[in-house]
Amino acid sequence: MNTPASTNAGKNNFKLPFKITVEQRLNDPPGWFSAVIAIGAVILALLIGALVIAVSGGDPLNAFNHIVKSSFGSVGDLSDTLQKSIPLMIVGLACAVAFRMKVWNIGAEGQFYVGMFGASAVVLIPLLPDDAPKWLWIIAMMLGGMIMGAIWGFIPGILKAKVGVNEIITTLMMNYIAESWNNYFVFAIWSEAGFEMSKQFPKNTWLPKLSELGSIIPAFKQFTTVHLGLLFAFLAAVIIWFILYKSKWGYEIRLIGDNPHAAKYAGISIAKNIVLVMMLSGALAGLAGMAEIGGVVHRFQQNISPGYGFTGIIIAWLAKLNPWVVLVVSVFFGALIRGGREIQPSGVPTMIQGVIFVFLIASDFIIRNRISISRREEI
After folding, report:
1. 3-class DSSP state of 132
2. Residue 112 φ/ψ, nearest 5 degrees
3. Domain positions in the chain
């Protein structure tokens, strides 16, 4: 009888000279640590974008210099950048308030679209007489956009609260429903002479431009494209900050996001708050749609959004859900949209946004866990 060979014979026992240990952090890291991680994610994304441009035969430094100059090179350029930033600010706030409670609203794009629909319906039905004052038209359009956005947020909210349906799936799918809903009205009901757009809205429904205050503040004369939506964004940031950090409801939102078991033990209704937060988030995204339709496009048509709703998700994460930081980060992404239109390859700005998001998700692991590298001890 042959003796079987040892199972360890010839086995490769190679080991790395170090070992990596991952431990969950018991305490939250300091605020500067999260900020450094977020800035690092942006820098890495820009480096990858530079690499893609270089491989494609371009000059990364010239490309980024072009983005900066075309976005901030003059007052007119800054005005265009701020105009692009307005919907991003409001949608970023919409995502931030939902994410703070760990309700993952991925449907801001669809809520943006139905907000456009609600605001347009006020004008195209119409719900007010043609000679109604501008301020009344604006209020009615705001209500129309916000109500439609709130309804679009209510549906996945009530499904999650009452049935436990995953809100990521429902909000994502409702984006496509919203786009198809709008297309039906664009092509069939409100089409002007068969074109893929409605007739132009009357001028008394347009949001005022900042330049109209030039007689009072001369510096505003050159801001010819910035409209009243910028004020909407600022007021929305004030309201969201007050709700989250100065109100009882905000305390409930933050407690549910941090520890839902403790919130339930304290008698807080998680189901009710899910519905209310989703409606608030949807209303804000709907307001963004109203601001874009009333301040920039002035008619109901296709392809108004270059992905504002999805970019708002990245902005909210990069801002660490801070309403004031959302406003600042939105200007950076507005510059990417405004200055990146002439960059080749044309998809580089969008790719940079996506890479930033991937790095932010990865960085969340670093924030939640402590990673240490130590020398392996030989036994």
Report:
1. coil
2. -60, -45
3. 28-58+349-368, 86-343
Cα–Cα distance between 117 and 304 in angstroms, integer? Answer: 12
44-48, 328-332, 344-348 — which is least confidently predicted?
Answer: 344-348
- Category of 20 on φ-ψ map: left (φ > 0), alpha (ψ -120 to 50) or beta: beta
> What separation in angstroms does the CA of 228 have from each of 280, 291, 347?
21, 8, 30
> Is there a contact between 294 and 138 (Cβ–Cβ < 8 Å)?
yes
Asked if 148 contacts 218 with a C-beta cutoff of 8 angstroms, the reply is: no
CA atoms within a 13 Å half-sphere pointing along the CA-CB vector of 152: 39
Is the distance from CB of 300 to CB of 293 less than 8 angstroms?
A: yes
Domain 86-343 of CATH type 1.10.357: no
Asked whether the CA dihedral 331, 333, 334, 340 is positive or negative, the reply is: positive
Terminal Cα distance for the chain, rounded: 36
How distant is the alpha carbon of residue 125 from its chain centre?
30
Give the 3-state secondary structure of residue 348.
Answer: helix
The answer to whether the CB of 171 falls within 8 A of the CB of 110 is: yes
Give me the phi and psi of 21, to 5 degrees please: -115, 130
CB 95 within 8 A of CB 105: yes
pLDDT confidence bin for 98, thresholds 50/70/90: very high
Answer yes or no: are the C-beta atoms of 264 and 270 closer than 8 Å.
yes
Residues in the chain: 379
Q: Please state the pTM of the whole predicted model.
A: 0.87
Q: Quick count: other Cβ atoms within 10 Å of Cβ 367?
A: 15
Range name among 30-34, 156-160, 171-175, 290-294 with the lowest pLDDT average: 30-34
- CA distances, 61 to each of 39, 44, 65, 71 (Å): 19, 15, 6, 15
What are the CA-CA distances from residue 250 to residues 254, 258, 284 (Å)? 6, 12, 16
The number of helices, as runs of H, and strands, as runs of E, in the chain is: 13, 2
Closest to 303 measured CA to CA, from 156, 168, 139, 179: 179
Whether the bond between 345 and the residue before it is cis, its omega within 30 degrees of 0, is yes
- The verdict on whether omega for the bond into residue 126 sits within 30 degrees of 0, i.e. cis, is yes
pLDDT at 346: 63
Closest Cα to residue 290, out of 168, 187, 184, 138? 138
Q: Which two tokens stand for residue 378?
A: 């030989």
| DSSP state, residue 296 | I
Tokens 């309700």: give the residue.
103
